[in-house]
Amino acid sequence: MKRFFFVFLFLVGVAACGSSGEESIFTDPLLTAIDSTNDRLFVAEAGGVLFAFTASTIDEIGDQPIVEDDDDDAIHNLLPVSPTQMAAIDVDGVSRLFITGVQADDDDDNVTNRILVLDFDGATFAEASFSPIIVGDGDDTTDDSANLLGGLAVDETNGRLYVTDATTGRLSIFSTADGTETAPAIAVDGTPNRMSLDGNRLYIANTIDTADDQVITVVNTDDLTTTEIDLDIPTNDISVESNDSGTVLLAKHSTVQQVLVRTVDTTTYAASTAIPVGDDSAVDGEINSGNGISAAVGGVVLTKDSAGTLYGYVPQADGIVELLTIASNLSSFTATALETLAEILEAPVVMTDSSENGVIVYIPASGSGDLVFTDVASDELDGRF
């Protein structure tokens, strides 16, 4: 099953959202992660703060935040001041979190190549016995402490944690059970960044500005072979989802406001095709500035419902979430702007059911301290404001 996630949705204003929502308890929400198996949602703020909720109801699990500067100092002191990526997975009923960002090493020096691992038993956090996971280049004579980790993805089916190293151009693979490296690192062309796992394929975004290397690397997780999809743009975020008709890819441009909407050639995993727009809400194969995008894009996420209709969510800095609705036969898509009064919407994530259909989308609004959320397929946003 697919269980990977990174951040969520909170919204603002009766007129803008169609709902008054609940009072926000956040100050600077940056990341979210979801353990759909155990119905848990986690929110990380700057400054070493963690919240935990029941994902399906947004109910608080005990007093919130569970971790802050005057509560659970041990975990607070371990957390990155500014976390950059967060993912969660179920391990025998425990929610295991993987968190990147600047962290202190054994000499109390700040390093960027470590992954903090925390376990949540439904009430409290504890550091896993094998934490932190240190990402290196395999050469003990080199110092990898300043290497930048680009993205995290967790693979519940295979018990794997995937992490990209943007500095060395490598994909490392670790066990989610004990943190050991389970396979040799894979060289990735360009500058690998965020990832999306769909079935037995891992798709890796690439931020490099060299035209020949502007590809999406696709890893077959069964045998760890790779192919490349040439997009001719640098990308720093990606989301991929399949239904009975095929596979859809959303890819966010790294430097301009553009999101590609394409189908993947699943015979070769080496090509893609633009999906036509079904009306005048966008242009064929993409949304861009003036055609579905009104401000800086904070990320992308794609999911589906039980009927096979696909839904893409593209949050933006001005509080608008662009909803992409893709026909179940993948013949066309439309774009609808959902408005909020929140600011700096980023990194959407999805809670899924046991059939891996999307249930709720969450998006943090770090600019206004809100958390926005919406039921999949709904055209209304709600949240804590």
The Cα radius of gyration reads: 19 Å
Low-confidence blocks of residues: 1-20
Q: What oligomeric state is this?
A: single chain
Number of beta strands? 33
What number is the mean pLDDT? 91
The amount of helix comes to under 10%
Assess the beta-strand content as a share of residues: over 45%
Taken from the alpha-carbon principal axes, the silhouette is globular
User: Biggest sheet: strands, sense, closure?
Assistant: 5 strands, antiparallel
Count of DSSP helices?
Answer: 2
The N- and C-terminal alpha carbons lie at a distance of 33 Å
Structural class: mainly beta
How does this model look, in words?
- This protein is an all-beta fold.
- It is built from two helices and 33 strands.
- It has helices spanning 14-17, 73-78; strands spanning 29-35, 40-45, 49-54, 59-60, 85-91, 94-100, 103-104, 110-111, 114-120, 125-127, 133-134, 149-155, 160-165, 170-175, 181-187, 192-198, 201-206, 215-220, 226-230, 235-243, 246-253, 258-264, 272-274, 286-289, 292-293, 301-304, 310-315, 321-326, 333-338, 349-352, 358-365, 370-375, 382-384.
- The strands form eight sheets. Strands 5, 6, 9, 10 and 11 form a five-stranded antiparallel beta sheet that branches. Strands 20, 21, 22, 23 and 24 form a five-stranded antiparallel beta sheet that branches. The protein has a four-stranded antiparallel beta sheet with strand order 1-2-3-4, with no helix packed on it.
- β27 and β28 form a beta hairpin.
- The longest helix has 6 residues, at 73-78.
- The chain is globular and about 55 Å long.
